[in-house]
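Worked example

This section walks through a single chain of length 341. The input is the sequence exactly as stored; nothing has been trimmed or padded.
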Amino acid sequence: MSQQLIIEPSGQQLSVFEGETLLDAAMREGFNMPYGCKNGSCGACKGKVLSGEVAHSDHSESALSQAEMEKGYALFCCATPVSSTVSIECREVAATKDIQIKTLPTRVEAIHKVSHDVAVLTLKLPSTEKLTFLAGQYIDIHTKTGKKRSFSIANAPEQEGFIELHIRRVAGGEFSEYMWNTMRVREIFRFTGPLGSFFLREDSDKPMLFLATGTGFAPIKGIIEHALAKQTQREMVLYWGCRSLEDLYMPHLPSEWQQKYPNFTFIPVLSQPKPEDAWQGRTGLLHEVVLEDFNNLTNYQVYACGAPVMVEAAYTRFLSHQLPAEEFFSDAFFTSKDLNK
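Given that input, the structure is written out below as tokens.
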């Protein structure tokens, strides 16, 4: 037995089968909702229920609060219909409409440990397959125990045949510990992708502010490299926040961009520099440092990726500094422990 889902303002109507979430049903029918984690943690798929009733599975309070639920908001990735018909408000992400999500084998090409706790994993795609993706999207790696782990694609689509991932070693993390200690070059596993609605909006000419914490730099790197390959003239400013200098794992790369491209600026920010760092640069909370430089964000686009607390704080504070809500794009990073997997 199925229930009816109506998506406004397009008016599209589709069936939701037993056990399906609203996001599952929409994706099955080819309607591309905005989404990120798909498990109620990031809030990317949050939207308004116009009529009808839904029930939620477990989700993060930071992604959808009780107050928001009382106002009629839902997380479409973990909401199932209760009433026979549910109407929601959701605009389609047109750019992902023609991109095919595939499950493919891949071979480990290289593992480079670029810092004390970050490795760059390079994967070789099958020569008979082409993976079309948007800069900033992610893939799900299928682990040997049958679980999936999500990692952002760190290279631009122009670099064909390979996928680059930045993986932080997490104590007790099944995949990251395996990659760090056991994985070998030429090993083969499977992945599914591309996924997510965090990507460069190329239909805008607004200047862009990029905020990254830790390995949140990965999709930002892909987006910037794509923009540079397209020879964009839009102003780009990257704020990359880490605790101390040793956590800033590839600072030479954005420094090179800054030297080569006059429309690109790199501002590293440390929240807890060590005495031995002898740090003379910017310090503090990443979003507050941005607001020291840009008090009025009316005419900007913002791309934020990394720790959920940074993404949430940036969204709240930036909107109070005139950033249009529709110009804030984010991807909050959760570890397997965060997601209780």
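What to look for: Residues 134 and 142 are 21 Å apart (CA to CA).
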